[in-house]
Amino acid sequence: MTTTASNSSGDDIHSDKETQYQQQHTLAVDITDVTGITDITDSKPPDSPLSLKETNYPEPLVFEPSKDIRELSQGGGLQMALQTLVASIFTALVLLMPLTIIFAFIYVSWARLPLAAYVAFCYLDPAVDNGVGRRIQWVRRLGVWKYVNAYFPVRIVLEKKLDPSLNYIFGVSPHGILCFSGQVVMGSQKSGLDEALAGITAHPAALHHALRLPLFGAYLLAIGAISSSRRSIRKCLASGKGQSVGIVIGGAKESFYTNRGSRRVILKNRKGFVREAIMAGAPLVPTFVFGENDIFFQVEHPALRRLQEWLQSKMMFALPVFYGRFGIVPRRTPLTSVFAAPIFVEKNANPSHDEINKVHAEYLVQLHRLYNRFKPIYDPEGGDLVIG
């Protein structure tokens, strides 16, 4: 794994753009309504007293893929075909794992009793609510991750090195279709995140019901996922130094806005993660994953959207209709996870609405600033960030 400052990374075009950016001041942001967060622009200084104004940030730390992954990613022919095959199988398994048990139960009569016992275990599995999951390191080290990381490929960028003695809440945007950032970046040892966040264990938060699903839930727990319930997040943040959680703030609803070129995130009325950060005294780290929304195309139609939103309101998870290359083959899009400098909060076991709104406003300011800082480098053709 190669670690560099941005102006010495392996990509010259990245270096030039980052150098140009470093010569500018960070954008100013106008919060027109601190309680509702109705608009964000780059024309006026921020009203929020927490905001960082006209501050030059140090050069970020860039964690490039390891040498073997870089060489694999740059290879062609058979190597490229193997990466594509592995990425396609990976996507198919994520989609089909929950259905495997159903088909086996219907068509394999001798397996019904053990399958029923396994389903019961999944429903009662204590690891779902224990706050740390059931992280299995050999699963996170599997060779398949090497090819998945090379296919996209993955890069980690930190604005500031994080203190491993603290617990953090990483607010991750956008969700994307299958939330590859949570799986490939946080779930795999090959992504370089373990090195970038040395001493910090970042647990991706997943829907409680997803962790109860046979096979799929076991897979999520193995890569370190925990339940996104309040109880589980609080247990995680209280379980020891460095224990942290990554929450995809926009959730299932945000996946409906996933499409190539779309940069819309759902955050205006999502404040629960801020409350949990204040209650635990855990710094908030705005995180944006460039490339997440460009992996698949989504079929969009008003009637289909109404049906999807109705189903999402009943089932608590989204059912976007999407496609990639040749069906479910994901588009080969670099995934760059950029972590902002942490927003420190004062611990308060019973935060007021005003306190939550104030920190939430600052979070939106910093996410917008982060996006505008790194967009010219990692997403020059992307649209403006829209916070809904």
UniProtKB/TrEMBL annotation:
EC numbers on record: 2.3.1.22
Keyword entries, A-Z: Acyltransferase, Transferase
Enzyme class name: transferase
The name this protein goes by in its record: 2-acylglycerol O-acyltransferase 2
